[in-house]
Amino acid sequence: MSKPLFTIPIAHTNGTVEVTTPAERVYLLTFNSPPDNRLHSLFIDAFSLALDILEHRYPHGVLITTSKIAKFYSNGLDIDHAFTTPHFYEQKWFPFYQRILTYPMPTIALLPGHAFAGGFMLAMFHDYRIMSPTRGFLCLNEIDIGMVMPAPLISIFREKVAHPNTFRAVALEGKRFTGAEALKEGLVDGLGDGTQGFDEATKLIKEKNLLLKTKHGIWGAEKEEMYRQTIGFLRTNTDNSLWREKIETEKRTRKVRQLKGVEEWETSSKSGLSKL
What we know:
By secondary structure, this protein is of the alpha/beta class. It has twelve helices and ten strands. A hairpin with a 4-residue loop joins strand 1 and strand 2. GO terms for molecular function: delta(3)-delta(2)-enoyl-CoA isomerase activity. It holds the Pfam family ECH_1.
């Protein structure tokens, strides 16, 4: 039986982040922010505080995160909040992902249901992932809603997805991966749901001897070196935005030139005097 450690409220949804210890130095962080665990500043604050408490007040071990809402791990970003909150990306969202990516304990995302968009990203910023074999999809659906993913968010997939065809399916096709498909493509490390999912996480911890991996205190630093490109993007989003703005300006200028050529061709074609 899990021993309760502490609970942190998520005020805007009357939700909670609850931390228990089902085994010695194994910490289970269960978040519950109805209806679908959207990534909002207050959700991020509560989650981040839990990470800080565990890091600085408890012996280092292994962190498992999961959702109390069976249908969703997370349905992604709270879009309205993100678009109306100044500096949300740079001051909340990206630092949160960097915190997860470089956390000084092994991290396992236990996915009971859907992980879409920012929720899929949140899982990818963990060290390991275990997904339900029967419920939910992993999906990066930005291509279907017309959102260009910022550099740090596409970078984590580039660094962690082994096969370029899988990366293409994730980013350009918005493919919905079942548990079995995600395991085959290396997006998750195991399959399990409910108690079985926790058992699979326990098995992974034992097989990889994860409880001993933090004894020298370099687990987080090692990940900083492994994922230096993604961390660089997370830390310099202003530069990334300027790069995107420059690219878009060049595209608009090029479009004007291209349309002029097309119009000249159309005019000459109608008069039978094509120049091409």
